[in-house]
Amino acid sequence: MPSGNQIILFKGKIMVFDNFKLNPLCLSIMLLTGSVASVQAAVTADSSVRQKINVVTNSNGSEMVHINAPSASGVSHNKYSRFDVNNKGLVLNNSSQSSLTSVAGQVAGNRNLEESGPARVILNEVTSNRASSLQGNLEVAGQSAHVIIANPNGITCNGCDFINTTRNTLTTGKPIMQYDDLKGFSVQGGTITVTGQGMKDNYSGYTDLIARAIKVNGPLEANNLTVMAATNDHIAIENNVVVAKGKTNTSNPGVGIDVTNLGGMYANKITMVANYDGVGVRNAGEIKSLGDLTIDSMGHITNERTMMADNLLKLKAVGDITNNGKGLIHGSSLDVAAKNISNSGTIKANNATLNADSKFYNQNIVNAQGNMLINAVDFENNNGFISADNNLTIDANRVSNTQSQAIDHNITSVDKGLASGAKMTITADQLVNHGTIFAGGDMSLEADAIDAKHSNTIAYGNIDIKTPGKLSTADAFIASRLGNVDIDAGSVSNAETTSWFWGLFSSTDNYTGEVQAAGNLTYKVKNATDNYNVLTAGNKLAVEAQGDFDNFANLTGLNVSLTGDQIVNYGQVLGLASIDVDAKTAFGNGGALVSLQNIELNAPQVANTGVISGAQTTIYAPVYKNTGDIKGSFSVVGHLKPEQPETNQPNVEEVEVENSGENTKVARTIVIGE
């Protein structure tokens, strides 16, 4: 015979009877006529515990729990064999007085709280093996409180909402109690799922989802949201922060936090933590924060759709971070750190720092409106576009920048390669540029070896290129639009060599490179060099070779100076104001030296088979041979030019001259030291 609190549906109305006994005959008649239907309670107290909660059904079909009196620390510990919230809603009564609620209207006071007063924390622990389903509003009557639902079997939220709560925590952990005070949770399994109509918790201060695995297949809205996937002996909430303090269980579900294409997280602040070895985070939906967004994973982080933060967006993974295809990662400030970082989507920020312990790989768009810093062991930009409106700095053991399409040296805009609005800095052991590197300000490229074949290197400020090894410049275009260019290389190579049949046949193709500077151009080479690079300076062009230097290209500047061991010119050297050549062993000209003003040659031996044309040409050489054409005023001095000119007395020296050229004016005896 039914007794105690009974829920009866009679003629479409729900009736609640306290301590009511129904005559069996009456009950049988009502059941036979269909006038009554049993209603299963969504919330059932654990009958095995001494301190039992009191559950009632309100007149509108919602349920209400008269919670237990709190401990001295303010924790009301309530145990259930079943804890669900139906679409009518659930009230947790935290008031000893009658109060008005949104879910159930006016409700009676909770007599359990008459002596203790309201609870600070309402802990709802499920002790059976039944998972919880939350499909309606959960409201605290009376004083607001921190509501905790702890169910190791799992929790599903489909249209759940929270009213009059300070904080809401859903967890599959078992509460850790000490002297009736809640110290945290032990999480060893279980899944929290947000699906369908999702979860709304916009009015409480904090929202926590703590489980071994969390799946978001619907919208999740909160103010300050923490999502933690963990298996840990002790997870606590300290200073409003969820922290894992205990021993981690290494059980690995692969993806600990999974946001599907139907899911989304929307909050003022979002913190996501995958806290045990190898567990990852996957987002195929939307994760948007009006403040900070932090994701910390002991495994991989994969983004296939949208991650956005109005403030800091911080991604940290022990494994890899991958932004795929249509994926967008966008933060005001971006901080990304992982073993490998791979981007085929879009990454944007005001300021960005990206650190890869191993490889950084990009084949689409990475942009910062301010500054960008990229650190990696291996950096590769494959037909992508990495740009910063201010400074871009790349530091890696190996840097590779390549483009699939042919390089256009007459570019007017940049949409591939590496670009900065201000300074560009690249430091590497090996730098390979087969694309475009552009800087709106200064540019600094420094590596042990630089391969710049078939590339553009362009800056509006100064360009500084340094390598103690080889600089390969076949079909390279290096230009400073408004500044100076300083190249300091161990050697410069302009040729590409291809061999077949184990070296029995080989061919060498020379691709002319070009270096331009609006101001000064300094071209330093430590080893013997055959130069096919066209060098052009708006002001001074200085070629400084520590070995032999053979020139096959056009060298142009207002003032041109060439220094080296043996210098041979087969190209054209044009110095509008002056040309100065200083060779330690010999200078030979089979091309053209042209200046509107002065030409000065200084070498132990000088031979000309080409053209020398200047208003005044002076040759300092003990040995001089001319079979070419010399135009303009011309004189030969029979010794090298002294570093410190003597002024005490004139010297007269003889010079060995062999001359068969045309239009040549030779002074066999020259007075020097004036």
Automatic annotation (TrEMBL):
Q: Which SMART domains match?
A: Haemagg_act
Signal peptide location: 1-41
Filamentous haemagglutinin FhaB/tRNA nuclease CdiA-like TPS domain spans which residues? 59-180
Q: Which domain of life is it from?
A: Bacteria
Q: Which InterPro entries is this protein grouped with?
A: CdiA_FHA1_rpt, FhaB/CdiA-like_TPS, Filamentous_hemagglutn_rpt, Pectin_lyas_fold, Pectin_lyase_fold/virulence
Q: Which Gene3D superfamilies match?
A: Single-stranded right-handed beta-helix, Pectin lyase-like (2.160.20.10)
Residues folding into a coiled coil are none
Q: Name one Pfam family in it.
A: Fil_haemagg
Keyword annotations of the record: Signal
* SUPFAM superfamilies per the UniProt record, alphabetical: Pectin lyase-like
Q: What is this protein called?
A: Filamentous hemagglutinin N-terminal domain-containing protein
Record the organism: Mixta tenebrionis
